[in-house]
Amino acid sequence: MNRFTKQIVAIISLTLLGCLYLQHVSDCQRPSIALHQSQKSSPSIIDENNNNNNHNNNKSNNNNKCKPRSNIVFIKAHKCASSAIQNIFIRYGYFNDKIFVLPKDGNYLGHPQLFQRSLVPDPRSFKSNYNILTHHSRLNYREMSLLMPNNTIFITIIRKPINLFESMFHYYKLDKLWTITFDDFNQPKSFIPKKVKENRLVGKIGINQMMFDMGMTPKDFENDDKIRHFIQRLDSVFSLVMVAERMEESLILLKRLLCWNFDDIVVFKVNARNTNSKHHLNATGIKRIEQLNRADQMLYEHFTKKFEREVRKFGQKRMKREINTLRTRTKSYYELCVNKTITNSKSQIVRFVTRREDNLMCQFLTNNELSLTKFIRKEQIKRYPSSVFQN
Ligand SMILES: *[C@@H]1O[C@H](CO)[C@@H](O)[C@H](O)[C@H]1NC(C)=O
Ligand SMILES: *[C@@H]1O[C@H](CO)[C@@H](O)[C@H](O)[C@H]1NC(C)=O
Ligand SMILES: *[C@@H]1O[C@H](CO)[C@@H](O)[C@H](O)[C@H]1NC(C)=O
Ligand SMILES: *[C@@H]1O[C@H](CO)[C@@H](O)[C@H](O)[C@H]1NC(C)=O
After folding, report:
1. Hey, whose CA ends up nearest to atom 13 of ligand 4?
2. According to the UniProt entry, which residue ranges have a biased composition of type Low complexity (predicted)?
3. Which ligand neighbours the alpha carbon of 148 most closely?
4. Does pTM top 0.85 for this prediction?
């Protein structure tokens, strides 16, 4: 094989692997959806007489003074309900003509290697700047801030490490990689193979997944001082760290930070992750998994405390009121858009079937990351051909 053929073979194998391991089965099997582009200018269509839907209406924002922000880096940590948040950014970016940082195919920007500017075209080549980076990447603050405008806001989401680890273990079938069953963690006498600490699935998926996505080197996972130092740095990088277990409050804080309106932050998957699994961990299992994921545990403790302070500062009454409004908006969109849901064997919702193929907002709300990414890439290449590397 010559070098070129080898590269093609490598790319195809990696894509297939990625498909097998890193996506929902449904993502891979489904052909891309033909998104219609008819009513881009008016994504909010539930009640045309309700002025609160209008993006230009300042009353619907948090206060009359703030100006919507749209230069954003979102670190899409794995298995943290981050696809729901990504859906928000993809939608906002598309409806507001923002320019995305996009991989030439698939949905990863680097990873497992840290993000590098060289992964995407230099913004000078399309004489504008990027606005939104929301695809899987490992945080590399320096490279990202050199690529993005200076007023870019960094955002991410975290999830309780024990929940994340369990969901990741089953989703990516790590029992095969690590030759261990999930129940082994419960057994005080069972041996945890070294592989658990050392092997990551295709280099990407393993213990301390959140800290890995935040850019930390696995060799530092056992060093508490380095972990603490790293968390301090993250604290100064991120303007908001959302918490998956507190999704609605997270969405409201996101809305305030970005000065967006309720329709911008509607998502359908809010509660899809709250399913109770059949795999019960007892105190032994919990302790072992927390020890294995000590860096994530420290990250989670730091940022949930901070989150709690933010929520208190926001005000309880106001939070309650805003969550109610968000629920009402979400319900309206759900009724408008969703005909039925497709569930997997564990009765978790894996996708929504829309009743409104003609409605772009419904299409965005019900489609998955891969088909939306294909769509926005195609649309962006039309407007800014040199903003995406092409094969
Ligand atoms: C909304 O903002 C515009 C300027 O962007 C201003 O002229 C107008 O008075 C504002 N309306 C309200 C209701 O605050
Ligand atoms: C952004 O950074 C550049 C160079 O670092 C600087 O020249 C420019 O004034 C900055 N813009 C703002 C709005 O801070
Ligand atoms: C957890 O369950 C295992 C059996 O599955 C048992 O051997 C172990 O003692 C239990 N640990 C605790 C703390 O209950
Ligand atoms: C909703 O789903 C049902 C059953 O699958 C189907 O018969 C119907 O045509 C769908 N309605 C719309 C509006 O798509």
Report:
1. 355
2. 49-64
3. 2
4. no
Would you say 85 and 75 are in contact if contact means Cβ atoms under 8 Å apart? no
- Measured in Å, residue 369 CA sits from the centre of ligand 3 at 40
Residues 193-226 as b or e (16 or more Cβ within 10 Å = b):
eeebeebbbeebbbbbbbbbbbbbebebbeeeee
CB of residue 189 inside a 6 A radius of ligand 3: no
Atom of ligand 4 nearest to the CA of 354: 14
pLDDT in tens, the chain (391 residues): 455 554 544 444 444 444 333 333 233 333 334 565 544 544 554 443 343 444 433 345 555 689 999 999 999 999 998 999 999 999 999 999 999 999 999 999 999 999 999 999 999 999 999 999 999 999 999 999 999 999 999 999 999 999 999 999 998 999 999 999 999 999 998 889 999 999 999 999 999 999 999 999 999 999 999 999 999 999 999 999 999 999 999 999 999 999 999 999 999 975 444 445 556 899 999 999 999 999 999 999 999 999 999 999 999 999 999 999 999 999 999 999 999 888 887 777 778 888 898 899 999 999 999 999 999 999 999 999 999 998 7
Type and span of the H or E element at 74: strand 72-75
Residues whose CB falls within 8 Å of the CB of residue 237, separated by 6 or more in sequence, listed in order? 139, 141, 154
Q: How many A from CA of 355 to the centre of ligand 4? A: 7
Q: How far is the CA of 289 from the centre of ligand 3 (A)?
A: 14
190 lines ligand 3 (CB under 6 A): no
Residue nearest to atom 12 of ligand 1 (CA): 58
Ligand 4 centroid to Cα of residue 354, in Å, is 9
